[in-house]
Amino acid sequence: MFKNKCDLRDFVVRREVRRTDFMVHGEHDDRTAPQFRNRKGRGPHKGRYDRSRRDRQRGNHSGGFGGPGPRSRLDDTDGDVTMSDGSQDSSSQNRFNPYGRPFRKGDGRFDRDRRQGKGGGRGGGGGPFRVGDRGGGGGKNQSGWYKVTIPHGRKYDKKWLLTALQNICSVTYTPVQYHVDHNRVHFYVDDSSVASALHKCSHKITDTDGYKVEVHVNKSAPPSFLLSDLKPEHLEHLKQCMAKRFDGSQQALDLNNIRTDPDLVSQNIEVILNRKTNMEAVIKIIEENIPELTSLNLSNNRIHKLDELAELVTKVPNLKTLNLSQNELKSDRELDKLKGLKLVELWLTRNPLCDVFKDQASYISAVRQRFPRLLRLDGHDLPPPIGFDVETPTTIPPCKGSCFGSDEIKAVILRFLQQYYSIYDSGDRQPLLDAYHDGASLSITTPYSTQNPSRSSLGEYYKDSRNLKRVKDSTIRFRLLKHTRLNVVAFLNELPKTQHDIASFTIDVNTYTNTLLSFTVSGVFKEVVVDGKSRESTMAFSRVFITVPAGNSGLCIVNDQLFIRMATTEEIRRAFVAPAPTPSSSPVPTLTAQQQEMLTAFSQKSGMNLEWSQKCLQDNEWDFSRAAHIFTQLKAEGKIPDVAFIK
């Protein structure tokens, strides 16, 4: 009925399947079909597109029927992967094959089979997917297995993806060993007709984002779990082989190229350590017999994943030297699975991952991030590691609080901050003009974030943020700097009204000379809306003031750097425990003569100013003895802020 050279894949039955949870496309608009140049091809597809074009021009096809050929009407033009021996998608051309030779055009088992006339079935060279071809050994590859790959399949729900494929696949199938590898999804099928049907599903499913799901199918070795496990008698031979390779004096085990060990080969035992079951067997033997092992050589074993080796972290805790050279590790991310090992020597030479780094320094840095105690890498000594060699959990000492350097500087700074923030938190910040130098400058910064800033409480500050990680343009950077005191104070007046928790302030003096004083103040605040109610969110700030002397023991700001972020849970819990006095209220309201006398005496003995002395007495119902006891206890614990002692 058909000519021998005709590929039955050229004849696709048109159909349209409708589902509620995804869209299926069985036909494509000819206007979007790719155009191919009329030139001779090479290899198994020689002249394929030219032949299709000639058929359309003649109004027939290779079967001899009149009218337009099926390829002209039903050709899938979505760029599906050509399922043939000689053509693969770009990703599969570079895909690691642990048992294959380096790629050379025209080389390989299937190319040789084609040249020798094998695997052609009745069609004589039509490729691996000759639909309906059941005889002659040409319908399947030697193993009978095919690997199905879904690029970017990680983002899909497994149930949705498999159901969608089954709904449009013309053959019922059972996916074997469904798994995710990076962004791809893989599973296996063991029938060529199923593989061919799945291949035709490529670009027929549209996901919720409007993208078409690609389906790649390639010949494959059987799934690793189906490969025969080592039999009990084989395990005993493997154990003896490992014993022969173990050096008790060095606590070292050499498993280099173990698959070619004569003792195993003579017994027809194949131990391939990139197989899950084989590696697990080796690790179990190590755990049961030599758990004190300190050196392990796994070089030249075609290892491309380190999942099973992660067991070494707990089962071989004394391992110090590991040789993984001459394997097939492609990414340094595989090393993350071994991060718990306290290695001092590691070999990775002649692995593909060694070629991804731009220089030796970045290579060493990436490896040392996983193994900070490493002293030798690929046989070369490394500089001694820098770090804290702490074996047991250590409690970090509590913060010391403010650091002023001297009582004189402390008094000056606390007086300045009391005056500054009493004005800043008032309704009018215009009086702050007196606090800034004529040539002062100010900048504001918020944390760098890729999220939508308008949804955050920091949205009001984000538009003026001069975060250099976000703002790259030098012109914009300059514009975000506020110059001269008039512009600085005008900008501060535009910011939301605030209430700062003075008791939360921590002050650190950075630099102090006779002509300059630089200090950092950190604390929490909340915004206040027009009606006087505060917002739910509490924010934290860190502010660096660079000042020069002004007037009689005063300070004048020449540079102001304000950083604002969201407060932590602990900061929120401790914020605004005591209500702050309003700037306009009198520090000492009307008291009885007895209370006034008690207040004066308490202030003299405690050293606190009248405002904080009154608060302490009021909180203890004007019980002088109890207030004195509480004051002594809180002062010993460092819980009374420095501002309480400013008089």
Short characterization:
The chain has helices at 48-58, 70-74, 90-93, 109-115, 158-168, 192-199, 232-244, 262-265, 276-289, 312-315, 360-370, 407-424, 459-462, 474-480, 484-494, 569-574, 593-606, 610-619, 624-636; strands at residues 23-24, 145-150, 176-181, 184-189, 205-206, 216-220, 246-247, 252-254, 295-297, 321-323, 345-347, 376-377, 380-381, 436-445, 482-483, 498-500, 506-512, 517-527, 539-550, 554-566. By secondary structure, the chain is an alpha+beta fold.
Give your account of this protein's structure.
Keywords: Leucine-rich repeat, mRNA transport, Nucleus, Repeat, Transport. It is found in: Nucleus speckle; Nucleus, Nucleoplasm. Its main location: nucleus. The chain is elongated, with a radius of gyration of 38 Å. 27% of the residues lie in helices and 16% in strands. The relative contact order is 0.05. The strands form four sheets. The protein has a seven-stranded mixed beta sheet with strand order 7-8-9-10-11-12-13. Strands 14, 15, 16, 17, 18, 19 and 20 form a seven-stranded mixed beta sheet that branches. The chain contains 19 helices and 20 strands. It has 647 residues and is an alpha+beta fold. The N terminus is likely disordered. The termini are far apart.
